[in-house]
Amino acid sequence: MKKLTKGLLVAVEGIDGAGKTTQVQRLSDHFKRQGFDVAAFKEPTDGQFGQQIRMLAKFGRHTVTPSEEFELFLKDRIEDCNANIVPALETKKLVLMDRYYFSNVAYQGALGLDKNSILTRNEEVAPIPDLVIFLDVAARLGLSRIKNFRKEDHNHFEQEDYLNKVRKMFRQMDFPYFQRVDGSRDEDTVFTNLRNVLQDVISPFILPGSYQEDLFDSGLRSYSSFKFKN
Length: 230
Known about the structure:
CATH architecture: 3-Layer(aba) Sandwich
Largest sheet: 5 strands, parallel
Strand order of the largest sheet: 2-3-1-4-5
CATH class: Alpha Beta
CATH topology: Rossmann fold
Oligomer: single chain
Mean pLDDT: 89
Distance between the termini: 44 Å
Structural class: alpha/beta
């Protein structure tokens, strides 16, 4: 077992169809095989508020205002933090998130809510991640994947004009722990890039004696201290 000196929180973000769920599952499987204690969670959750959000996606968002929609996401995240995320971090697990509060900044920000207020409200109740990986794909590609690979109809969050705005919101984020990865490439190439980025972040926190070899090449990462680009 490779033990960490602290719990690490990693969020994988992006528009619908970016490949988040596939890559989080692959990362979870990989790092478990490497001997790490991994917990993977998905938002919205299957809890009471998460189910309400899924109903909005399926049947329409016209029944709530953008502010009311955001409050549902926030309540769902509070439940997730209390029941899953914080306990996993306290036991020094590697926690992988399939979406986190940066999706609120992008999706509700694209509806006109203040992105800094969304960020502040979330960071009052949810741990700040050690790493956010943004899988960047064009809206048209994301929607094509949903149609061709998932064989699903587009829900009310999955509209091209809207997702273009959401993507723009994601691309404006410039946190010191925010890493953009091209999600348009083939699944294996994207996974290799994510794995290497994540390994760079994990390596300094591996308990001495529990890590025996350098598994991947490290590379310098360029981060900015600014939260949003102009």
